[in-house]
Amino acid sequence: MARQAVREQQGITLRGSAEIVAEFFSYGINSILYQRGIYPPETFTRVQKYGLTLLVTTDPELKNYLNNVVEQMKEWLCKCLVQRLVVVISSIESNEVLERWQFDIECDKTAKDETVPREKSQKAIQDEIRSVIRQITATVTFLPLLETACAFDLLIYTDKDMAVPEKWEESGPQFIANSEEVRLRSFTTTIHKPEYYHPSRRFKVLPLLF
Amino acid sequence: MVCTVRFHICTGQLEEQAGRIHSKSQLLQVEREKMQMELSHKRARIELEKAANTNARNYEREADRNQELLTRIKQYQERETEAENKLKEQMEMNKSYKKSMETMSKKLQEKESKLAEANETITILKGKISELQRNIMNQEMQMTSQDSQKEELMEQLDVQHKKWQEANQQIQTLQASQSLLAEYEQKIKDLEQKFSQQEHDAVIVKNMKVELARYPKMERELRQLREENAYFREMKENNGLLKEEVEGLQRKLERYEKVQAQLVTVELENEKLLGKLKSWEKLDQSTGLNIRTPDDLSRQIVALQQRELVLKEQNSTVTNSARTLEKARQQLQEEILQIQSQLLEEKKKREQHEALVRRLQKRVLLLTKERDGMRAILESYDSELTPSEHSPQLNRRMREAEEMVQKLHAHNTELELEVEMKVLKSQECTAEQSTSITKEEINSLRLKIEELEAERSKLEEENRSLEMKLEKLTLQGDYDPSKTKVLHFSMNPASLAKQQRKEEQQQLQEECERLRELVRVLEGGGSIHGNLEGVGSFQSPQEIAELKKQVESAELKNQRLKEVFQTKIQEFRKVCYTLTGYQIDITTENQYRLTSIYAEHQGDCLLFKASSSSGGKMQLLETEFSRTIRELIDLHLLRQDSIPAFLSALTLDLFSRQTIA
């Protein structure tokens, strides 16, 4: 009880914001994998987060991969080097990119030098994250079914002059030709502002601009 | 000529007389001719009548002949019709005969075809007969060979029979010796058993001795164990009791811990409440309202609430009055505005009127001036009344006056314009006195402003479209390669999935090739080689081995059954032969050949045919042997209708013949 009270008064630091955003990405990617049926639903288990029941994977290989990526993301978010995170869903047989879930990140670089934390309550951020995750679940209703077996990949757009750590490599942007885009909600921790939109095929652009 | 004329004249009279005579002669001639003619006529008439009569008679004859011919024609016609009828009948007959002929010919053809078929069947049958005869020949050959074999076998049988007898004797001796052997063996066994039992007893005795030696030790151990057992039972009871105590204590502990936690919370609450109490008590000091108990506080609160109510009422009244005042104020303001506007209008009208007044005054002045001028002119004219030619002077003066008037009019209009301009300037508040000079500048500036505004709107539109494109590209995932780069984890699930798929594909291709080879081999040879079999069945070699084993075992079973059946059948036939005295063979379907054990010749046999499919009723067929036993057949088959009696009678007969012979 005492610890929580102290945290609320502290507000949002850069490190805290990076943690929140990275955690959100981890749960968001898990939700996308479950909703789009990339992995079988029986490999997912329920956890409580942001006041919702979310599904996370139990597959150890996948967990390991996601943890590696998310840990790296946290470091880069602290240094404000990340511009975008993209979840690319492609068909295994034809290597064709079917869907792209794109998270744009606006990082306020002045927060690196600040010592006074920003004022935004934990609850407000959680509400915003909750609405984004609900929207991810809702978008699945109007997306077309993925008929073929698919696999996913995580692409991170960073600054050009950043050092590439081992185990990571450069790749192409994996565009979709003739795609249609849908822009969805965003949330902000006042330091990091991930905006979120999602291009895919075969449906019209909806006016969900915020 | 004269002479001739005369002659002529002379002769004329002569001629007339000659002519008259001539004519008379002619007349006579003519009359004669006439008479002749009449005679001839009569003759002709008579002849004609005769001819007519003859003609009539001929005609009658002809008529008669005609009638006769007609009758004949009729008769001939009748005959003709009759002949036609007969012809028709004959034709019909002919047709019928032809039809019959055709039928007959068809029948003939059918018969011929049948004949041909019969001939063919005859040929076929002849062929068959020839084949059968050949078969018979072959079979007779076989029979002869078999008879020879039989003779040989009979000789062998005799030899074997002798051997068998010798063997029987030997067997008997052997059996005797064997029985003796058996007795000795039994004795040996008994002795061995006794010996083994004695050994066992010796061993047992030794073990007993060893055990007896152990006995006191065992007693001691027993005592110790019993003591320990009793001790452990006591301990167990103590343990049970202790466990119950422990459980009770644990429960107490839990309760005390809960109580402690509650205590802690209660203490916290206590502190909070004390704090609150203190703060409440402090209130007394802070508010200075003589509060020591909560009752006082409640009283104060009630009083405050009452005051609040009163104040609210006052507030509401005050607000109502304020609203009414505001409404009145607004009305007054509106009235003020109206009055101001009216004032302005009045001022304008006044100014306009003043301007009009000034103009009119000026006009009046001008007009008075004109009038004075005109009056002066008129007075000058009146004063200078002379009969000279006034016209040019008058005209000049008229022109001068007119020019004066025009000048004055022009001056008037100019002055009026100036006045209007001054009025306009006085009405406007701006102090631009050089408007006529700067109008051109204003127009040019306005044009520039319009152009710039048009450019600005175009640039704004371009900006908007570019921003839209940029946004769309960023939505699609575009990025600036000079500032950003795209990274991903090397061991990402998509690449792993691709690798797995490749490996699966390779495996499937290899499997495919193996299976194709198997198929080729199977289609070509039909026999599976060992290595291919191993290759082809790499998925389930065990199943195939099991199946093969099953197949082999089934085949073995089949073979064994066949052998067993054969042996059984042969045994059964032999037994039947020995018991009944007849060997029963099946020659063709439903035909059974019986050969007696006592038959005199090899070929003596009886043929029976089964009339029903189940073999219930049998009929005897004619053979060479059956002809020799007529009496038996008559007696037993025809009269008594019993085949077993017949067969047994036959065996007895043959047996009697054999023994006698």
From TrEMBL, chain A:
SUPFAM superfamilies, per the entry: The spindle assembly checkpoint protein mad2
Principal location listed in the UniProt entry: nucleus
Presence of the UniProt keyword Cell cycle in the record: yes
InterPro entries: HORMA_dom (IPR003511), HORMA_dom_sf (IPR036570), Mad2-like (IPR045091)
Alphabetized UniProt keyword annotations: Cell cycle, Cell division, Mitosis, Nucleus
Localisation: Nucleus
GO biological process, alphabetically ordered: cell division; mitotic spindle assembly checkpoint signaling
GO CC, one annotated term: nucleoplasm
Domain HORMA: start-end pairs: 15-198
Recorded family membership: Belongs to the MAD2 family.
Protein name (database record): Mitotic spindle assembly checkpoint protein MAD2A
Organism annotation: Cairina moschata (Muscovy duck)
Automatic annotation (TrEMBL), chain B:
Signal peptide boundaries: none
Role description: Component of the spindle-assembly checkpoint that prevents the onset of anaphase until all chromosomes are properly aligned at the metaphase plate. Forms a heterotetrameric complex with the closed conformation form of MAD2L1 (C-MAD2) at unattached kinetochores during prometaphase, recruits an open conformation of MAD2L1 (O-MAD2) and promotes the conversion of O-MAD2 to C-MAD2, which ensures mitotic checkpoint signaling.
Pfam families: MAD (PF05557)
UniProt-listed SUPFAM superfamilies: Mitotic arrest deficient-like 1, Mad1
Keywords attached to this entry: Acetylation, Cell cycle, Cell division, Centromere, Chromosome, Coiled coil, Cytoplasm, Cytoskeleton, Isopeptide bond, Kinetochore, Mitosis, Nucleus, Phosphoprotein, Ubl conjugation
Record flagged with keyword Iron: no
GO biological processes: attachment of mitotic spindle microtubules to kinetochore; cell division; mitotic spindle assembly checkpoint signaling
Superkingdom: Eukaryota
GO cellular component terms attached to this protein's record: centrosome; kinetochore; MAD1 complex; mitotic spindle; mitotic spindle assembly checkpoint MAD1-MAD2 complex; nuclear envelope; spindle pole
Record-given protein name: Mitotic spindle assembly checkpoint protein MAD1
The species this protein was found in: Cairina moschata
Family membership: Belongs to the MAD1 family.
Main subcellular localisation: nucleus
